[in-house]
Write a structure and sequence with these properties.
The chain is mainly alpha-helical and 425 residues long. It has 19 helices and 4 strands. The protein has one domain. The longest helix is centred in the middle third of the chain and has 26 residues.
Length: 425
């Protein structure tokens, strides 16, 4: 009897550990990205890990599920490179918009509108957003390696050569090999591998192993709430909200199928509860010094290891809090060591390009515009804007205006109005 009870507990703990190791590369990658925007690396590291731990714990206890929740790369890369990197807003103002977007996301979820928005947006634009995000990740990774540069808001070729780029290239090959053999640490192992090579070749210095967690003093409650009062920033707010909804909803749908949460009618069991934690986690992240939360697709690794309940989520949270004391080691990992992960994930997402339906001209054309505008303009926002405008315009021109959902019309009007204002002013 005792063995029958112990076995499920063992599976839950192993599932939680599997997900923890799968997402642990974010403990380095997220602070590195945020530090580019001027946020202190140590504070960003503490904020990222604390938010992952608390948001995951909340999901575990509130939804009774094994899914990890924390700051997502989609919104983070958008804000770092397309907003703060272009000096449109400082990081305090950007975190203010993250808070307001998170509050809107929570309210939309609580009142059931989040589901309606997601269902209203054409599948072609959702898939195009995923593909464009992948191309954007590739561009970000190449920028981290110095292969691409941003000149006057556009991408340009950088310098080739250097130990960092060579090490990262080997790490990228390792990433794809581990992914091909379905190794659970396909994201973490390449980072560690590149880090070890960087230490051996003198590209970074060993800083130690353990210490007290870095202080949050430089970021705690430093967000600027008043950024929402300026209309020129509303497009950024809308982009954060759209990315957050797309990202988390797509991940939840995939993980729900793996968990057996899908009902016969196609609805997700516990959907009303499952869409709440990421919004609350995003608000917490804005207060502590990091960006919007999403559900982590890497949770599928823990689910595959038979993690099914709140115990797996609690295991992830406890492990994350323990990682706070590894700051010296984590801070010695160079930026180029995480580039292979960004590029690898980007390639996986870019494969959605094969979903283009060439028989439907409006869908195919808007798909291409959405996906390729994101890396070309180095902006997720302009990918969304041009995608929605082109989709609505082409549908109207071929006499299918009535098939366009009112929510799509509203979003198209907002994007078009902003485009017109930029042209005028």
């Amino acid at each position: 009897m005792r063995g029958a009870l112990t076995k499920p507990i063992f599976h839950e703990i192993v599932g939680g550990l599997s997900t923890f190791f799968a997402i642990s590369y974010l403990f380095v990658l997220a602070p590195q990205l945020l530090s580019i925007a001027g946020i202190d690396f140590g504070a960003a590291l503490s904020a990222t890990i604390i938010v992952i731990a608390l948001a995951t714990l909340f999901f575990a206890l509130y939804v009774n599920g094994p899914i990890a929740v924390g700051p997502g790369l989609s919104v983070m890369t958008y804000l770092v490179f397309s907003v703060m990197g272009k000096h449109i807003l400082d990081w305090q103002g950007a975190l203010g918009l993250v808070f307001w977007a998170a509050l809107l996301q929570y309210l939309l979820s609580a009142f059931g509108w989040r589901k309606k928005i997601l269902l209203a947006i054409p599948e072609s634009l959702q898939l195009a957003s995923a593909a464009g995000l992948g191309l954007f990740f590739i561009a970000v990774g190449l920028k981290q390696l110095g292969i691409l540069e941003i000149i006057q808001g556009k991408l340009a070729m950088g310098a080739l050569g250097g130990n960092g780029q060579i090490i990262a290239s080997v790490g990228l090959v390792l990433f794809f090999f581990l992914h091909k053999v379905h190794f659970p640490g396909s994201c973490l192992i390449p980072v560690i591998f590149c880090w070890v090579l960087a230490l051996l070749f003198g590209e970074t210095k060993w800083q130690g192993l353990f210490s007290l967690p870095p202080s949050l003093g430089s970021t705690f409650f430093k967000l600027t709430f008043s950024s929402i009062l300026h209309p020129q920033y509303w497009s950024i707010l809308l982009t954060i909200l759209l990315i957050s909804i797309f990202d988390a909803s797509a991940t939840l749908s995939a993980l729900a199928r793996q968990l057996g949460w899908m009902r016969p009618d196609g609805r997700i069991r516990n959907l009303e509860q499952a869409v709440i934690p990421d919004g609350i986690g995003s608000m917490l992240g804005a207060f502590l010094g990091t960006t919007s939360c999403s559900l982590y697709a890497e949770s599928s690794i823990g689910i595959h290891a038979k993690g099914r309940t709140w115990l797996s989520g609690c295991t992830i949270a406890v492990c994350c809090l323990s990682a706070l004391f590894l700051y010296p080691a984590l801070s010695s990992i160079p930026l180029f060591a995480t580039a292979p992960v960004l590029i690898g994930i980007g390639v996986k997402l870019a494969l959605y390009l094969k979903c283009i339906d060439w028989k439907k001209i409006p869908e195919a054309f808007s798909f291409l515009i959405t996906s390729f505008a994101m890396p070309v303009f180095f902006s997720l926002y302009w990918g969304f804007a041009l995608g929605f405008i082109s989709y609505t315009l082409l549908k109207t021109l071929i006499g299918q205006a009535k098939k366009i959902h009112p929510i799509v019309w509203i979003l198209t009007f907002i994007f078009a109005a902003h485009l017109l204002l930029i042209g005028i002013f």
